[in-house]
Amino acid sequence: MITEIKQRLNAILNPATGNTFEAEKRWKHVGMNGEKLVAEYNRDGITPAEKRVIEAEITKSLSDLIGIDNIMVKTTSTQSQDVFKALDKQSSEAPAAPAASQPAQIKAGHGTIDKKKPVPGVDKIIAIGSGKGGVGKSTFTANLALTLSKQGKKVGVIDADIYGPSLPMIFGKREEKPRSNSEKKIIPVEAYGIKFMSFGFFINEEDPVIWRGPMLGGVLNQFLFDVDWTGLDYLLIDLPPGTGDIQLSMIQNAHVDGAIIISTPQDIALLDAKKGAEMFKKLNLPLIGMVENMSSFICHSCGTEHFIFGEGGVEKAVEKLEIPFLGKIPLEIELRTGSDNGVPYMTQDKFTSRPVWKSFQDIGHKVDDFFRPLPTEQPKNGFLSKILGLNK
């Protein structure tokens, strides 16, 4: 079947030139990932409008061979400003679109430290940090958002890891381009009931971000205050690793209600996680607790639990730091593949009996309880208690 697919894709025409994709050598990769077709092409010189025509033709061409939901089209560009130039070209050649469908714009200006203020439309803001990269923070953030959503909350996420934005991939929205509404507010992208915003929507995936921290602070302020977050119970902020000025500017500008620290059990990760916890303390930010990610791995063949990164490190650390321990999340290969394929773990109900699912559910309840504690029991020594015989 893959041979037939490639033949049809090679015959797709570039509306900008009238040539086939085969003649222009546009295809970078065409292959199957399980039941899903992944087709990636070079989009240099192709406007967003032409891109939509091309991808409609791709879907139409393959509809009798493979289900529409199983077709994933990706694009690459050899120039960092290709997409933005294409947008400029399109806007100059086409009549103005209605205000509600204008492309969203971001500003590369410098952030400023103002008096803390709440984000309109948001009840509680939670910062999620790690101190160190590579501990699974973004995967945790996405799946915690989905967990809270399953527990009846309205949730949004800001991907504040500007140098390595990954939420568009995790949520399966890599090709999305945010729009702005009539009030010039950016409309967040939505996936699986979660509203989210990422710098990854505004750059090419393969381009490095070579900006200084103060410039990035301006972008992050936009994500907080210029995005329409109306109606959220929780807004999760997926912070970049470390304790630098990006974290400081965001936390000092917005009224953040609490923070979660993510770490693996190994000593080198805990060393940096402790620094993150101390940063939050110095900023007088309440610490909801600490999560031990990648706590262990259970072998599918022998059933043995392996502590690859050490055992119990986070539990020992929280005792010294005097902060709550939220729980352990073990390793499961499906947690990783779900993020890579744009179908996060907590969207797949077939995993409800597994340890990772149960860990996220437990952590989600603990996070919600932090802000909405159970009412304390009233003493039973009043006048009515005596009459009703409740004092025993």
Short description:
The chain folds into 2 domains: 2-93, Fe-S cluster assembly (FSCA) (GMP Synthetase, Chain A, domain 3, 2-Layer Sandwich); 122-371, Rossmann fold. Helices cover 35% and strands 20% of the residues. The protein contains 13 helices and 14 strands.
Q: What is the second-level CATH architecture of the largest domain?
A: 3-Layer(aba) Sandwich
Question: From the structure provided, what is the oligomeric state, counting identical versus distinct chains?
Answer: single chain
Relevant CATH superfamily of the largest domain: P-loop containing nucleotide triphosphate hydrolases
In the CATH hierarchy, the third-tier topology of the largest domain is known as: Rossmann fold
Helix and strand composition category = alpha/beta
> Number of helical runs?
13
- The radius of gyration computed from the alpha-carbon positions, rounded to a whole number of angstroms, is 24 Å
